[in-house]
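Fold this complex.
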Amino acid sequence: MELLRFATAGSVDDGKSTLIGRLLLETKQIFEDQLEAVERTSRDKGFDYTNLALLTDGLRAEREQGITIDVAYRYFATPRRKFIIADTPGHIQYTRNMVTGASTADLALVLVDARKGVLEQSKRHAVIASLLQVKHLVLCVNKMDLVEFDEARFDEICEEFSDFAAKLDIDDLAFIPVSALLGDNVVTHSPNTPWYEGPTLLHHLEHVYIGSDRNLIDARFPVQYVVRPMSHDHHDYRGYAGQVASGMFRPGDEVLVLPSGFTTTIAGIDEYGGPVDQAYPPMSVNIRLAEELDVSRGDMFARPHNAPTVTQDVDAMICWFSERPLQAGQTYGVKHTTRTARARIQDLNYRLDVNSLHREDDHPALAMNDIGRISIRTTVPLFVDEYRRNRITGSFILIDEGTFETVGAGMILAASAG
Amino acid sequence: MEPIMEPLVRICRVRGAYPWTGMTTQLSHLNALESESIHIFREVAAEFEKPVLLFSGGKDSAVMLRLAEKAFWPAKIPFPLMHIDTGQNFPEALDYRDRRVAELGVKLIVASVQDSIDSGRVVEETGPKASRNRLQTTTLLDAITEHAFDAVFGGGRRDEEKARAKERVYSFRDEFGQWDPKNQRPELWNLYNGRHRKGEHIRIFPLSNWTELDVWHYVADDGVELPSIYYAHRREVFRRDGMLLAVTPFVTVMDGEEPEEMMVRFRTVGDASCTGAVESSASTVEQVILEVAASRLTERGETRADDRISEAGMEDRKREGYF
Ligand SMILES: Nc1nc2c(ncn2[C@@H]2O[C@H](COP(=O)(O)OP(=O)(O)OP(=O)(O)O)[C@@H](O)[C@H]2O)c(=O)[nH]1
Ligand SMILES: [Mg+2]
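Structure:
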């Protein structure tokens, strides 16, 4: 069965968690004891109705403040598809957690409060989704019950968002008028919106064409770990363990080993218990080489005629998570595939204004939650592809070397001239 | 050496079959989960100095052990297992534990709650509903410190409970073993950040994205052996707080509680004093899958007394350093 991963997005209080609660409830994914707990808490807090956001807002602080702080992951299936939901926080302070939830999504549900319209935070999340190559967007105009299910209001918001989304890199965009609180157009068509002829949210999620964004062309295998049993049965066994990032690998294929630059052939590919005749993403396998070469963690197998760029200079878009601003000249730890190195920020090219999408190129620093374009130089060469082409060899994280926190998410644009 | 060239072919988005071979290139859902978990195991083995795998003999740790076995094959699992032993075990789970350890030739460390009690590190609860469940946290943290473990694999799944649903795959713990749910590190793609200082550690959850049904399907497809108490059997049980508790030396049957023999199985296996059974006639894995799929209660809500105390029970225990 096909798997769809989606993440919620949008400003604080637009109803993301309520919508996920509604979707789970109406698709009968909520267990009796879970619903009872939520009903009890809602009563105790004196709410007039059951607060379905409590189904995903699982932390004490979230229940106390009535906001989402960190991503909640939920898993459900209908007869048509399996879903992994990341319900993310709208509050700007927790943008880093939204990025966490969206980094692995295929689709983003952007919510907008019908009364408030498209806010800066709605745009920020849409921009982040687009940068992360989340190719499918759904704009849910929520709280339609508070605007009398007014068609003109819906159209107005859709138009405003369309103008903005035209500048983003997405494949498709759907618009759905909903009330997360009351359930209109979530799983069943609403009698309150006779003017809306599109699908319900669930129908759209079940049917939107996702295809596969797996890259089966560019063979890339970051070496994770070297398996050397040193046992009598497997005396000379030396397997390079890793997960196929992209492309196909077969015994007999010629491979280029990076960074050494040697070429050799694949002697065999093993999974637990024995050999397999091919490996493709996201398989975790052991690759054995025909020749004994010096290969270790952080190296990569590719093809002699289709290799990633080997470079110490990288241009990338970056989402910044730290309270300490990013500035040119600073150094960080960098993790890219299975390589760990250090990186110096050579240049902050521009900061992106998420409202206008203008590039502000005289900006001295990126503050927390900013998005910008940077050039970095790394202490050792990385083996990179453009993020648009390869989510795995095109992404990296920056780590603060004092606090060890993850402070930035990078999406590679190109290897820079240096 | 060949010059490093720009890729020659343009990317094409292929769906399902690999067109020029007709072979499938799509992993099944379970195989994709398996592969993700194996990736996590290898990542930890490569980057940490002293990992350890928590092994209780329950179904999640059974699957974890199986995945670890696969991740390093044909080599042995390159880290020890650790059982936090409350001393209140189902004998079937202990048998199973010892059998698997012998089969795999791995080292098992047993950290005993009884020792923590005897040495005065913790004080045992009293009364008929006393449980050693919460005491395990101290034993666990002491053992982590004693052995200087820097990565601790646990079998927690995000679908188990709403606080767990919030947790990262790599979950940072400070020098007191505490989890700070409001301040978790961002975790992007499959790039895990395991950096920490001496005395701090990372809890690792390779089964984060598995559901209870996924675990059972995997048990079925892969032929994972489980302790026999996961399948229906006759057992003396009694009702307490809406739960079916087994009559064992570790619980005191109170007035008004009437033990009777019933066909039951366990949905989770933890400390015998607080793990409930469910009525069941499912004696094969296929029958269990049908029952699990039809269940209207969560596994923890139905079978874990410790989780029924309060809405934040799990979160509070996790903050303190619980599994
Ligand atoms: N009237 C009405 N109220 C709604 C609707 N959807 C959500 N709400 C209310 O809006 C408030 C915020 O809802 P949440 O679901 O917590 O919002 P959120 O987008 O998840 O907020 P964050 O996660 O903190 O960003 C709650 O009081 C909801 O009951 C709706 O369709 N109609
Ligand atoms: Mg929310």
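Chain B touches chain A through 76 residues (CB under 8 Å).
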